[in-house]
Amino acid sequence: MQTGYYISGAGHVGLICFMLFGGLLSSDPLPFETTTNVSVISGEEFAALVAESTPDAVAVQPDQTETPVVEEAPSLSEVAPVEETPAPPPPQEVPEAETPPDVSELTPPVTEVEPDAPVEPAPPVVEDTVTTALPEAEQAQEQQADRVAPEAVAPPPPDTQVADTVQEAVTEGEDATEQAEEAEATAPDAAATEIVTEAETPASAPTQSMRPQTRPTRPAPVETAQDTPAEEPQTDAIADAVAAAVADAASDDAPAPSGPPLTRGEKDAMRVAVSSCWNVGSLSTDALATTVVVAVEMAENATPVSGSIRMLSFEGGSEAGARQAFEAARRAIIRCGARGYNLPREKYAQWREIEMTFDPSGMRLR
Amino acid sequence: MRAILIFLAMVFSLAIGSVAVAQDGPLRLRITDGVIEPMPFAIPAFQAESAAAGQLAGDISRVVAADLTGTGLFREISPDAFISTVSNFASPVQYADWKAINAQALITGAVNADGQGNITVKFRVYDVFSGAELGKGLQFAGTAQGWRRMAHKVADEVYSRITGEGKYFDSRVVFVSETGPKNDRKKRLGIMDYDGANVQYLTDSSAIVLAPRFSPDGNQVLYTSYETGFPRIYVLDVNNVGRRAIDLPSGTMSFAPRFAPDGQTAVFSLTTGGNTDLYTVNLASGALTRLTSAPSIETAPSYSPDGSRIVFESDRSGNQQLYVMPAGGGDATRISFGAGRYGTPVWSPRGDLVAFTKQNRGRFHIGVMRLDGSEERLLTASFLDEGPTWSPNGRVIMFTRETQGAQGAPSLYSVDISGRNLKPIRTDGGASDPSWSPLQR
């Protein structure tokens, strides 16, 4: 059993000795392809060499008022106040501009300054900049939108069941005196009189599916003569007031939204959608201090009606700041609503009108 | 049984939570979280309405775009992405094409040159998503030499209409140009457009100059010069570079001057007998008025926009802090109470904030605070930031930043008061001590 160990140990020892002393692990250094002779020089010699190879110092002499690279002389002139005038001024009113002095060439006086002798300012260079208001920009023609019928096309009558024999549809009539079993209309299979391809869709084919109807409002209970006892008088004041209120509400043009309200998640989704487009990065500090309340009417496809966006109120800033804040809010509503917000269509009555309060106080100079 | 009850309670609470409260009137939402990002805009190259305007039209539209993007509030959409081309200034705008590339604002313009050095620049701004023009189209007439100013004016109008902020592109900056190594630095006054273009020099570099400050009308500059070996205040006319020294008692040192809003008076520091106090001088008569009389050092005064108060720095409490006092002198109120030292205060043109330099724990900061010391915000931090100056609209601050080491050099930076859009101002060589002019007229 141990004989194997001895043989293995002897073999390993022999192998290690061969590697160590047999030259297997030794290596010769890589040969140099080229050699360079160097010599040692003193510091003085090196300084002399450097001095010979260094060009003359031509650093910017501070005393030389070297003319800088100047693209244009700065406008040193009086400029007409920016005013919006209805018509451009006649050309003869534009005075001839004088060449501004090349200030860079002017050297300040070297002589002692006279404190008591103020320098008479030279007449400024005249360079009138006249500002003129332009006429209104031509409005672009609205691009043609797809023609969509205001009302969905009624679906075609249901296909007739194929049968060997022709049979009229049987429905339950009001005045039916004879009870007949209800049955669908049937007709034998027949070929069309012309070939109609997909590209030649008949005009009567529906182009869009029916929009799901909103949940109908619950009808007010109508009291019938049988329900109301004839002997009970209708003179209760409370009942009259309730009836009047109901009548007023019914006659109101904008009735209160009915149906199930939006859940918190649905409101949050809308809020997040608008927030993602509400960019306050380009607002003035005044506008950033202004909270605006904006009203918007929504179309049924959940897109905002651009013309309906209006500012209801503002607080915390000036009117100019409120105007800028409102513009940013309007951009946010339009941008992120261009393809329709993710709002439940069946609750349209709940979000047909939305009031949004844009409060940037938490984002001010963050 | 207990588990079933808990499960039912959870289901019930979820159901209650998911059902909104009964709605009365329109749906009401409160939006409090928006996004802060540059507004994308498109600016097709302005139309050249005459052959002589070909080059200028492109140059002007480039300067307008650079002005707007330089604010950090706007992002230019590459012309490669344009669907529509604007071949005529009067052409109607195809809003759908600009909406498709998410351009929220569209700027169109045209340039006409009469070949005799006069040009007209006209432009319109459109709110793409509203499908309407933003304000009215405007036309500027001027000389071809001043085309950059006209471009700045166009950009000012666009910027102001979209953001609601005041204008500031058509303004200049006077600064100290620095050349040479740190131990032998040469300084001279320079003046340039706010964006670093059109640099010209107002003085030579025979003497050290410091702290130039514009007059309220932008035609004069107050600065300190060591021409006589001692600091002395001079008034320089930027139109003809004529200058004169302020007549002050001999044997005194004067520095840190700044114009009063009326332009007739200057406030400055005067050192006499080893003590530094604040004085005002009538620039016409030379009459001096002493504002402070304390054994401490009072310096770096700055007027409020209405000229009624002065903010300054003083070490009367033991280290540098900021104080506010009436313009005619009197009791000063300390407004800075944070850790570190505060200096070089500058009153905002809007009057609501003070910009300052703060040194704390070996770092320098540019910051702003309200006049009562509240809402202190540090906008920058570096090895050395100092000397803030306000843009004419009070939205941007320019300052000096110096890099560390023997090869360190000063340069100008600007930052929005929100702390965003920190960026260097392009200058030839070193630059320090900026002073922003008012909007040019």
Question: Please, could you describe this protein's structure?
Answer:
- The complex is a heterodimer of chains A (366) and B (441).
- Helices cover 23% and strands 7% of the residues of chain A.
- By secondary structure, chain A is an alpha+beta fold.
- Chain A has a domain of 98 residues: Fusion Protein Consisting Of Minor Coat Protein, Glycine Rich Linker, Tola, And A His Tag, Chain: A, Domain 2.
- In chain A, strands 5-4-6 form a 3-stranded antiparallel sheet. Chain A has a two-stranded parallel ribbon with strand order 2-3.
- Chain A is elongated, with a radius of gyration of 47 Å.
- About 37% of the residues of chain A have low confidence.
- Chain B has 441 residues and is mostly beta strands.
- Chain B has 2 domains: 125 residues, 3-Layer(aba) Sandwich (Rossmann fold), CATH 3.40.50.10070; 265 residues, TolB, C-terminal domain (Neuraminidase).
- Helix content of chain B is 13%, strand content 41%.
- Chain B has 4 helices and 32 strands.
- In chain B, the strands form 7 sheets. In chain B, strands 2, 3, 4, 5, 6, 7 and 8 form a 7-stranded mixed sheet that branches.
- In chain B, a hairpin with a 5-residue loop joins strand 24 and strand 25.
- About 2% of the residues of chain B have low confidence.
- Chains A and B meet through strand 1, helix 4, helix 5, helix 6 and strand 6 of A and strand 1, helix 3, strand 6, strand 8 and helix 4 of B.
- Strand 6 of chain A pairs parallel with strand 1 of chain B, so a sheet runs across the interface.
